[in-house]
Amino acid sequence: MTTSKTLTFSRAIDWQWVLAGFCLYVVFHLLPSYLFALSWISSDPFSLALWAFMGLAPIGFFIGYRSSGVTILEPGLSAMFYTVVLFLGIQQLQDEALTFKAVAQSLGWMGAAFIVAIGSAWVGELFQARKKQK
Amino acid sequence: MNGKTDATPHRGSELSAPFRFWLYGLTIATLLLVFLTDFDTSQAYRANQDWGFHLALMPWIEATRITLLNGLDVFSGVPLSPPTDAQRLTMLVGLLLSLVVGPTLLLLGIRVSRQKSETARAKSYGLMLSLMLGGILAYAVAIPSIPVALLQWRVSNSLREAQEQGEQRDQMIGSVGRIARKAREFRLLPVSFGGGGGSFNGYTLSDAFAKNEFGTYRVESSSDSLLVIRAIPVSSRGQSVVATLEKSGALRYRFEDTTRD
Question: Side by side, which strands form the sheet with B215-222?
């Protein structure tokens, strides 16, 4: 048995965790945002960004921590899919036409969500590794 | 072989059946709610005071909003109306959900979960629903609390700053008013009594009037019929108050800001 101090990516993507991650984002981020009308936060762009991305981080962390094997890409992909759904949901809610600017903006969000989810999953993996060492 | 570097990912589901059941169920319900219903909670916030019942997980923010609106109403002379039943219900339900139901479901779920064996835990749908609902409520309160706290800090800072600036401006206007009174006296007094003999010419500020804790004051220009006083606040970055005193006794104020066009 060998132990590695560095974390490496699994070669295959665990789609079960991608699906679970997407569902976790929907249930724990989209549902509260929508149902409990967190739109007051949207009055301040900084708070909106903080909620949008901070809300994603604990879920990425959970997936990284809870899953066996290295699952860093999975929450990143889930976050990207979730961002697309979020974007479509916002478009539906605001009844706005799809513009090039909106699509470009959503691509930026997807990238940012991907980075946040990957970063938090990586931290989750580190915690998992530390727990196993104990 | 280290599990962490295993090339093949774990195939069996690591999430219990009840967890997956509720997770997928809630996901489908959420997506249906967002995409297929016309339920727009943000409408409640767009309409000013005539909003109906809605779920608000942070009712204290609603309370602040209502207080501010009431304050504006009082300021504008509109008589205050008591909170509507919808507002009361929104507050009550919000408080119950965020401070009672959410934490209770979550903590009770964790407690029961610890008492049960792993096999029993993996089969308990009720326990998992309790954990998930409690988790959602706690998550929806805990995570936005951070941006809310930051927002509150920024708002209170800017309010304090605005209040300080307003207070400073009021004090300076008061000081300029006192200077203008002295200047009027100076103009009325004959030259033989140390006055201007019907003119503002020659009026100078004494040390007591030239500077105080709020700013500095100086006579910008003077003539027979006009005296211009400039007051510069201590914290000024190019801002000043210019007061023009006419021979009729009328005093006009003008605010100048060299940082703006």
Answer: B211-212, B215-222, B226-233, B239-246, B251-257
Query: Is B49 within 8 Å of B90 (Cβ atoms)?
Result: no
**Contacting residues of B for A11, CB less than 8 Å apart:** 7-8
- Residue pLDDT tens, chain A, 134 long: 444 445 555 557 888 888 999 999 899 888 877 766 555 555 666 666 777 777 888 888 988 888 887 778 888 888 888 888 877 777 766 666 667 777 777 788 788 888 888 888 889 888 888 888 87
The angle that helices B17-36 and B125-188 make with each other, rounded to 10 degrees, is: 50
Contact A32 B136 (CB under 8 A): yes
For residue B104, with 0-12 CB atoms within 10 Å meaning exposed, 13-18 middle and 19 or more buried, which class applies? middle
Question: Which of B198, B196, B188, B240 has its CA nearest to residue B218?
Answer: B240
Contact A22/A86 with Cβ under 8 angstroms?
no
How many angstroms from the chain centroid is the CA of residue B68? Answer: 10
For the entire predicted model, the pTM comes to 0.64
Q: Would you tell me which residues 65-124 of chain B have a C-beta closer than 8 angstroms to some C-beta of chain A?
A: 65
The helix/strand/coil state of B49 is coil
Q: Is the ipTM of this complex over 0.90?
A: no
